């Protein structure tokens, strides 16, 4: 191989490395979980207009359900009220929370951000949990940190909280919000509120382009 050909090969290898999703060298199953989710998010954003809101929702749904522990998240966000719910009420809260979460992502990933995602590494968290540090990298502007807290259950790592800008806990925000609704309107009020918010996101989402 001559010197020019060798340079071409090295350049090709460098381009391939830069185009691959960034994962830490010692990536664990927890980081792999976030990596898979990032791949789905990127694919949906790249085809956002063609998919439309409903198409994005259906593409995101299985990946989000697999990645998130919505039962644990519903338990934490409803606080002391959770233990007073019947089994059927608990299922309703989990289902409504899950639907709103998917609806939020489907509305957010409309293709306007042109983002990619990058895993920065992971660190241990209390109670045997892991925090996977991650960021969204827009086409222009500064990266935005979106970190994930995961817990292991039956050998599977699943997300139980999301930290925007490394500090704003989604679970804490939701818990404050849900507690106020439950105190004022009870279980029925919470379910109605979650369903109304999901319906609003759905009604605002554009249809798929032709």
Give a concise summary:
The protein is of the alpha+beta class. The chain has six helices and five strands; from the N terminus they run H-H-H-H-H-E-E-E-E-E-H.
Describe this structure in words.
The protein has 210 residues and is of the alpha+beta class. 58% of the residues lie in helices and 19% in strands. The chain has helices at residues 3-19, 29-46, 48-67, 70-78, 87-108, 170-204; strands at 116-125, 129-137, 144-153, 156-164, 168-169. Helix 4 (70-78) crosses helix 6 (170-204) and helix 5 (87-108) packs across helix 6 (170-204). The protein has one domain: Nuclear Transport Factor 2, Chain: A. The protein has six helices and five strands, in the order H-H-H-H-H-E-E-E-E-E-H.
Order of helices and strands: HHHHHEEEEEH
Give the radius of gyration. 20 Å
CATH topology: Nuclear Transport Factor 2, Chain: A
The share of residues in helices is 55-70%
Main sheet record: 5 strands, antiparallel
The CATH superfamily appears as Tgt2/MlaC
How many separate domains?
1
Question: What class, by secondary structure content?
Answer: alpha+beta
Shape field: globular
Strand elements, count = 5
For the largest sheet, list the strands in their spatial order: 1-2-3-4-5
CATH architecture identity: Roll
Percentage of β-strand residues: 15-25%
Distance between the termini: 49 Å
Summarize model confidence as the mean pLDDT.
87
The low-confidence parts are 1-25
CATH classification, class level = Alpha Beta
Number of helices: 6
């Amino acid at each position: 191989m001559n010197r020019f050909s060798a340079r071409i090969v090295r350049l090709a290898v460098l381009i391939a490395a830069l185009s691959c999703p960034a994962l830490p060298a010692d990536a664990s199953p927890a980081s792999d979980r976030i990596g898979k989710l990032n791949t789905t998010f990127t694919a949906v954003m790249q085809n956002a207009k063609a998919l439309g809101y409903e198409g994005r929702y259906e593409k995101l749904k299985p990946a989000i359900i697999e990645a998130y522990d919505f039962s644990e998240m519903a338990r934490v966000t409803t606080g002391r009220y959770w233990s007073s719910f019947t089994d059927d009420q608990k299922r309703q809260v989990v289902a409504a929370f899950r639907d709103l979460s998917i609806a939020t992502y489907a509305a957010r990933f409309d293709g306007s951000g042109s983002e990619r995602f990058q895993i920065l590494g992971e660190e241990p968290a209390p109670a045997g949990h892991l925090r996977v540090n991650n960021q969204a990298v827009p086409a222009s502007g500064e990266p935005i940190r979106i970190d994930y807290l995961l817990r292991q259950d039956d050998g599977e790592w699943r997300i139980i909280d999301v930290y925007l800008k490394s500090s704003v806990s989604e679970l804490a925000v939701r818990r404050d919000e849900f507690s106020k609704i439950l105190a004022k309107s009870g279980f029925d009020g919470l379910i109605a509120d979650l369903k109304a918010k999901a319906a609003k996101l759905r009604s605002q989402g554009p249809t798929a382009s032709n």
